[in-house]
Amino acid sequence: MSNEAEDVLRIRTPIGVEYAWSAGTRSSAYLNGLLEGKLLGKRCPSCSRVYFPPRNGNCPMCGVLLGDDDVEVGPNGTVTTFCVVNVPFLGQKITPPYVAATILLDGADIGMQHLLQEVDAADVRMGMRVEPVWAPRDNWGPTMENITHFRPSGEPDVDYSDYAGQL
Amino acid sequence: MSIAGLVREAADRALADAGMTMDDIDAVVIGKAPDMLEGVMMPELWLAEALAAAGKPVFRVHTAGSVGGSTAIVAAQHVMSGVHKRVLTVAFEKQSDGNAMWALSVPVPFGMPVHAGAGGYFAPHVRAYIRRSEAPGYIGAMVAVKDRTNACANPFAHLHEPDWTLEAAMESPMLWDPIRFVETCPSSDGAAALVIAAEDVADSLPGPKAWIRATAMRSEPTMFAGRNQVNPQAGQDCAADLWRKAGIADPRREVDVAEIYVPFSWFEPMWLENLGFAGRNEGWRLVEDGVTDLRGGSLPINPSGGVLSSNPIGASGMIRFGEAAMQVMGTAGEHQVDGARTAVGHAYGGGSQFFAMWVVGAEKP
User: Fold this and answer.
1) Which strand (E) or helix (H) includes residue B132?
2) Cβ contact (<8 Å) for A144 and B111?
3) Which of A38, B87, B136, B205 is most deeply buried (CB count within 10 A of its CB)?
4) Strand order in the sheet with A70-72
5) Which residues of A are less than 8 Å from B175 in CB distance?
6) What is the mean pLDDT of chain B?
7) ipTM here
């Protein structure tokens, strides 16, 4: 047979799922803060730790609702640890290499991941001080992506002992 | 091969090894990592038929990457409770049907999407471990060479790469600095299955068996202020519970071999400390001194080649548990540890937040 079809071994069938996410009161304050260019965390009334972002509204350790009062954190912070992403993969929006850093914002008690740019990856250090770079205000939404990335602030590095408990 | 085929092949092999058929089995416990890794929701529903288990009780377990271990423990609890006598447990992942890097990098509304994948999540913790322990930079490469070499003695390993040297490993490209390509697990398709039977059933079976001496599970939140992400409390607590239940006072001396979940090579020294095999910041010294080597080491770690040589995520934990059992049964073939009488299987998952462990022994406890 000359026109024999090849076996079909693999087909691609893209699927999508859309979610509606209910932010709740604590994360709403955080997201509304981002619309104003403010970094608003919440304090646990039991252990006094400041969560930024105040993700689910509860302190994961104490199991109680975070306090209602906003606690402004940052804008600067400290790189506690980081990795340099050199691997490309499906859906990635940033071209490698780039630095994904865990940043402990001033006044917060938990680090968050963000991008670190405007610095050679080889020069990034644990303990490095950084500051946020905001997108043009016209592009802001209720999202952490209003900060496009962090960059070195030029302040002296923080001693390891001061953030070792964050690792 | 389809998911159904993978699962069926593993189940058939386990049943044959136990001298049983599906007719002998009272219940089935199935585990796999997030459904999104393949995009097939609740696959356990149709896998019952593939396993010829339609009509039998089927239970699904899901604890992210640790699921293979938790699934085996849940199956053991089905028997320990006295409800069932013979339980088949199966775990799998078919990474070629999906894209795990994508599935583990879905943007969430409350944070910044950094698009770094699983390696990007764990690499900062590896950096923190290196800083905290002051380990030499070549330790991760040493573990990688060991595991890739061990895998060559395991016909079921995904990667068979006999030619790695420490020098070559150190030249391997950085994927998620400080994690090199060779220090990273592959994306694998695979399944594992075990038959877990009550004491009286086991006594009636010919051939070697592994006696479950203790099991333990623990979890903790992924994110909380002050969390020890290098040496998580849940893992420390899980190990302490395991040793207590097994009556093991000094795991370093009393355990002959361990299969622990090491998807990135640096997690070997990290988990050696978390499990209590080494003191704090000392795990890397066991690697450097060859203690964890298959030949000549006093505590061989991952003689099968480990997750670093095969990572069908959902199955990986059960492979650890099954490999530990094979070691004390003396059926591990070319990667058998001579005289292994007491072995540990270990799995972790999520953001180092789910832990599952068991101790198996050659002697009936």
Assistant:
1) helix B117-133
2) yes
3) B87
4) A50-51, A40-43, A70-72
5) 86-87
6) 95
7) 0.90
